[in-house]
Amino acid sequence: MVENNQALEAYKVWLNASEKYDYHIVGIAGALTAWGVQTLQLKALDWTVAVEVAGLAALATSAALGLYRIERSILIHSLSLQKAQLTIKSNEKCARERRNQEEIGSADYVGVEKWEAKLREVDGLLAKQKPVALRLYKWRNFTLIAGLVAYSGGRVAHQLLHFTPT
After folding, report:
1. CB within 8 A of 51, min separation 6: which ones?
2. Distances (CA, A) of 84 to 9, 16, 88
3. What is the distance between the alpha carbons of residues 97 and 155, in angstroms, rounded to a whole number?
4. Does the pLDDT at position 136 exceed 80?
């Protein structure tokens, strides 16, 4: 029982750190998007402005994907916690039934099947959610990098094309 609690605590610490990282990435993407929109110069409409706008759209998409990933992470955490609690309850129920079987001499595992069915249901939900969270992680990172490259490339190209020496 102590090992289960330690594993749960370690998982909670890891999840907390992971969520904080996700919140930082979302905050950075959102702040860069807001700053980019405020400093967008539409004096000369050419391809550099289109690249900047595409970069800003990718940054905004990255922030949205990050928020959705945080939501999925919270769901996975609650399902993992539910799975751990169901496993502990199922193990306790099995241990009680074994003791009863040894005392009485007959096996009556009526309640165990109920816990096992719930455990299988939670396992199925977890199996569906983990790949979704991984895909969101990859797409968030891809759109963040693409947005940064496109926005900064558009800004640099705009400055180079419209350079006026003084």
Report:
1. 150, 151, 153, 154, 157
2. 12, 18, 6
3. 70
4. yes
Tell me how far CA of residue 163 lies from CA of 45, 57, 71, 160, 166, in angstroms: 15, 26, 45, 5, 10
Q: Report whether 59 contacts 140 (CB < 8 A).
A: no
Beta carbons of 146 and 58 less than 8 angstroms apart = yes
CA dihedral (81, 8, 67, 125) positive or negative? negative
The sign of the CA dihedral 123, 67, 148, 17 is negative
52: nearest Cα among 163, 156, 140: 156
Residue whose pair of structure tokens reads 């020496």 in the numeric block: 165
List, for residues 22-62, the tens digit of each pLDDT value: 889 999 999 999 999 998 877 777 888 889 999 999 999 99
Domain ranges of the chain: 2-161
Question: Residue written as tokens 């594993």?
Answer: 7
- What pLDDT does 100 receive? 65
CB 158 within 8 A of CB 49: yes
